[in-house]
Amino acid sequence: MSRLDRSLLRPFPLFRGLADADMEVILESAATRRVAKGATLFEQAAEADEFFFLLDGRLKVMKFTSDGDQVLIRFVVAGEVCGMAAAIGRNTYPATAKAAADCVVLAWPSTMWLRLVEKVPALGAGAMRALGQRLEEAHTRITELSTEEVQRRLANAITRLAGQAGRKVDKGILIDFAVTRQDLAEMTGTTLHTVSRIMSCWESKGLLEGDRQHLLLREPHKLLMIGEGSSADG
Amino acid sequence: MSRLDRSLLRPFPLFRGLADADMEVILESAATRRVAKGATLFEQAAEADEFFFLLDGRLKVMKFTSDGDQVLIRFVVAGEVCGMAAAIGRNTYPATAKAAADCVVLAWPSTMWLRLVEKVPALGAGAMRALGQRLEEAHTRITELSTEEVQRRLANAITRLAGQAGRKVDKGILIDFAVTRQDLAEMTGTTLHTVSRIMSCWESKGLLEGDRQHLLLREPHKLLMIGEGSSADG
Fold this sequence. Notes:
Largest interface: A-B, 43 and 43 residues
Helix content of chain A: 25-40%
CATH topology of the largest domain in chain A: Jelly Rolls
Strand order of the largest sheet of chain A: 1-8-3-6
Oligomer: homodimer
């Protein structure tokens, strides 16, 4: 990568501790790419030629089943890596990533992964922490799907999303990209109908408000309590 | 570690490609420990002082919810690492590991992780592959919990367990450790009652047989088909 101002990358935890020389090594093999909202960055089962760092925008990572069902695995926000098939010894992408907003990514050839980690061990350690966090998120979802009522799962999914991608505003916590009810249904293993019913109820009680562009948690604490099962409210 | 015959470790993928000198580095800071069946190796939320490699036996990794519910995350079989909190930047164990059979583990102080990976990068790469595999297993379970009927989930859980820990015998594929119906219920997000009903049905049809010590898949192919949803049988 030639022209990107390195100072743009410094705020991201993955790059924060790196020496300038290491940063140089990492960036010289990267390409900057724009991905328009709605476009696909990589596709499940396709050959994993590249891995990515999201500089700006949002990605939606989905898994498709052989029956054609679709599950939303996660949103990727700026500062996160994705498509790390090479790092985990895979040749193909395990999921599909689509731009949920206009995105800018850094892309590296997968063949570079081992060389980069050898030269910059901190990169490997950072990627490992990211994988570990996702594994834990995944185990939390499994636990929720196995033991919790849908209303708690939905409250927890929204609370996590706010923690990952929300920002504090006057009226509460704002997630300022489109999170559809279908997305929420796929994230919580339930139907669109059920999500709509619960969300409408929460909206009428003033807990949150959402449209096609954003989701505003007006009473994040109440959602947290519903998620913990310590409130029958909902 | 002083006395362990290195040749015992060579067959495991994690150690297979390592130079003798690297092997030496890894093993000199390891302690060998026996864990009796039923004993706890590490506990969720406890300080993660050590990480482990399972030489022999089976571990059961479970997650407890704040409500006291319990979910079986996975069985760990010989040749796998676990308790890798240090590798993913955590101070505490995210889950509990109990011996499902008498076990022998290698244990390292968590403080050694970064030093070991620096000296032996292949160890980091191996651990990353292991994490990646688990992440994928977890996403598959999320997908199944979100989209599949319980009968398919149960067939898939048993098929995966056979792939991970089974061996071919005359009558089919044998998983030769105790997998209780409660374990299977926790692995598939359903009740003991439902698992018992389906397993009894499958047993009566000759698909499998189980007792407190083992599980024998007599018709692994049929279970595979049930898991894929391509058979109404069950």
